[in-house]
């Protein structure tokens, strides 16, 4: 006797999150509500019930993406035993990431640039993501006994963000490799 396991299809909230994550990354946060609703196969009412509107959905999508992206950075850091190699390993992983044909750049930078209103809830999500990434960098630098972990974290973060921006705009230039070489100088 075989048993067929049926998984329930995602509800409207989850479908909106999935559609938002896909469309905002592929086309930016300026994507229209009608396209979001069509992609998610939900009624307009669902958007307002679950997120209060498109602004709330954008913030929720960025929050979810941040959790996934921070897990990606954690996995990159787990790739070596020594703090120096863990930090340099981030750039090796970034090189793989930006070479992917689906790569469209840094979603946090793109959102911040596209959303002019400084009070938009998405800005709080992008700021929180950057703070949490910086905390990870500082932790690794402290474990490395770096002389100035705060400053070095700022420098490494700049190299990471620069890699993501340059990776979205330049073919076959490998910005992560250049950033890795500069990170090695920061690490000493």
Automatic annotation (TrEMBL):
Protein name: TetR/AcrR family transcriptional regulator
InterPro entries the record matches: Homeodomain-like_sf, HTH_TetR, Tet_transcr_reg_TetR-rel_C_sf
Organism of origin: Tenggerimyces flavus
Domain HTH tetR-type positions: 10-69
Pfam families attached to this UniProt entry: TetR_N
PANTHER family for the chain: HTH-TYPE TRANSCRIPTIONAL REGULATOR YJDC (PTHR47506:SF1), TRANSCRIPTIONAL REGULATORY PROTEIN (PTHR47506)
Record SUPFAM superfamilies: Homeodomain-like (SSF46689), Tetracyclin repressor-like, C-terminal domain (SSF48498)
Alphabetic keyword roster: DNA-binding, Transcription, Transcription regulation
Positions of the DNA-binding region: 32-51
Gene3D superfamilies assigned to the protein according to its UniProt record, in alphabetical order: Tetracycline Repressor, domain 2
């Amino acid at each position: 006797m075989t048993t067929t396991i049926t998984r329930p299809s995602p509800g409207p909230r989850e479908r909106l999150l999935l559609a938002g994550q896909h469309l905002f990354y592929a086309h930016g946060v300026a994507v229209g509500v009608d396209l979001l609703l069509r992609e998610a196969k939900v009624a307009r009412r669902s958007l307002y019930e679950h997120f209060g509107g498109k602004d709330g959905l954008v913030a929720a999508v960025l929050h979810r993406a941040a959790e996934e992206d921070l897990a990606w950075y954690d996995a990159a850091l787990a790739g070596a035993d020594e703090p120096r190699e863990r930090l340099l390993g981030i750039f090796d992983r970034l090189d793989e990431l930006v070479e992917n044909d689906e790569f469209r750049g840094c979603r946090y930078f793109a959102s911040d640039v596209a959303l002019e209103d400084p009070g938009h809830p998405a800005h709080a999500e992008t700021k929180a993501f950057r703070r949490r990434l910086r905390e990870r960098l500082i932790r690794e630098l402290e474990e490395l006994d770096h002389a100035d972990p705060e400053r070095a974290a700022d420098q490494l973060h700049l190299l990471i963000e620069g890699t993501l921006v340059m990776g979205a705009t330049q073919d076959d230039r490998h910005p992560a490799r250049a950033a890795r070489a500069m990170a090695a100088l920061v690490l000493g």
